[in-house]
Design a protein that fits this description.
227 residues, alpha/beta, Rossmann fold, six-stranded parallel beta sheet, 6 strands, 31% helix, 15% strand, disordered N terminus
């Protein structure tokens, strides 16, 4: 399903020095222009998520992939680092001007929800796979501030370091619903963490992965359509 060819993929990598104020270092390559989709990896870095980014790029988007470890939520400048990357994505010459869609996984899913969902002027949609929100100090407040269409895809058996517990997903969705925030939660009863990643065969569930991918495509088509 996830073609590993890099024909359309823009691979964005960044390196921050020990000084937290250092600007990101970005490398990018692509052959065509298109709307931008910004993908944020999980704790393991970009490698396991590159096939997913490839698949997004193959749809016709300019896909950027970043290591979410570069804006760990405990850092005081995590939000600033996130915004630097968003700006770099928007300013890339291969990106058609307009809003950016964000797809985050685990740690990156948390960043997408915390930093991306309130940016109504620059973000068209957020898709978060098993986001690490269990440790968010105020889940309800974060959910109530969601201002862009948001889709959360989570496994009901997720116990990965207790970062992404299904109860937290339900709490987030309920708070968003009560606030009138545009959040949709889809859960998979037999799935654990990383259920859609072939790079992690112990957790990979083909059926759930296929369903989540179809939902991802439809969500992008609805909220971040190709020209």
């Amino acid at each position: 399903m996830y073609n590993i060819a890099r024909t359309f993929l823009v691979l964005l990598t960044l390196a921050l020095s020990a000084c937290a104020t250092s600007p990101p270092i970005i490398t990018a390559t692509a052959l065509e222009k298109g709307p931008a989709v910004f993908l944020l990896s999980g704790l393991g870095g970009e490698l396991g998520y590159q096939p997913f980014a490839d698949a997004v790029a193959k749809l016709g988007y300019v896909a950027f992939l970043a290591d979410a470890n570069n804006f760990i939520y405990t850092w005081s400048d995590a939000g600033e680092n996130f915004q630097k990357l968003m700006t770099a994505v928007q300013q890339n010459p291969r990106v058609i001007p307009g809003k950016v869609a964000i797809i985050g996984f685990s740690l990156g899913g948390r960043a997408a929800l915390v930093y991306g969902t309130s940016q109504r002027e620059t973000v068209s949609a957020v898709i978060a796979f098993y986001p690490a929100i269990t440790g968010i100090r105020n889940i309800s407040q974060t959910a109530a501030q969601v201002a862009v269409p948001t889709l959360i895809l989570s496994g009901e058996k997720d116990r990965f370091f207790n970062c992404c517990l299904i109860g937290s997903m339900h709490e987030f969705e309920a708070a968003a619903r009560n606030a009138g925030a545009p959040v949709t939660l889809v859960t998979y009863p037999g799935a654990a963490h990383g259920f859609n990643l072939e790079a992690y065969p112990m957790q990979y569930r083909p059926g759930d992965a296929a369903d989540a991918w179809e939902r991802t495509k439809l969500f992008l088509q609805e909220h971040h359509p190709l020209p």
